[in-house]
Amino acid sequence: MSGILLSAIGIVLFALGYRFYGGLLERLFEVDPNRPTPAHYKYDGIDYVPAKHWLVLFGHHFAAIAGAGPILGPAIACAIWGWLPAVLWIIFGSIFLGGVHDFSNLMVSIRNDGRSVADTSEKVLGKTTKLVFSLFLWLSLVLVIAVFAASSAKTLETTPQIVIPTFGIIPMAIVTGLMMYRWGMNTVVSTIVGVAILFLLILLGWLLSDQMEL
C-alpha cells in the first residue's frame, strides 16, 4: 500500500472520528459554545487569558501532544513489528484513546475553574489522593523528560543542521507572542512572521551545520 493512499485513509478516518465520535463526546460532556470558560471569568492577563481557538489554542495543543510517547512509540513499534501495527495505533489510538484522554482532561479542568488534574483530584477525592497522584505525575514526567532529552541529544549530535532551529524556536515563539499580545499585531500577520523566522532558522542551520559538529 502506497504512503499516499495510507495517508488519505488516515485523514478520512480522522475526519470521521472528529465528526461522529467527537460529536458523541461533545454531547456526553454537554459542551455549550456560549458557556464562558475560566479564561474569561477569571481573566488576569497572566495565567487566564482567552486564546483564538484555531490559530493559537490548536497550535498549543498540537505541540503539547507531540511528546516522547507519540513520537518515539510508533517509530519503535515500526522498527520491531513492522509498519501496520504502528499505523493502526496512530490512527485508532489517536481517535479512541489519545483524543478522548486529552479532551476529557481539558473539559474536567475547564469545569473546575482551570485547575490541574492533581488539584481536581484533591477536590473530588481528598488530599491523600492529590499527594499520591502528584507523586505519580512527577515520576512520570521525570521518566518522559529523561527519555526525550536522551533522544533529543542524540538527534542533535547526529544531525547538526537542527541545532539552530531547535534552540531558536523558543525565542521565535516569544517574539510571536509579543507581536500578538503586546504590540497589537494581527494574528495572521504574526503567524506568517513567526513561520518566516522558523524557515530562516532552518536555513541557518543548514548553512552553519559545519560549525555545529562536535
Count of helical stretches: 10
Specify the oligomeric state.
Answer: single chain
Q: What's the helix-strand series?
A: HHHHHHHHHH
Number of strands: 0
Describe the structure.
The structure is a single chain. With 214 residues, the chain is mostly helical. It folds into three domains: 112 residues, no CATH class; 43 residues; 56 residues. The protein contains ten helices and no strands. Helix 4 runs antiparallel to helix 5. The radius of gyration is 20 Å and the shape is globular. The protein starts with a helix and ends with a helix.
Name the features.
214 residues, mainly alpha, 3 domains, 79% helix, globular
Structure, briefly:
The chain is mainly alpha-helical and 214 residues long. The chain has 10 helices and no strands. The relative contact order is 0.07.
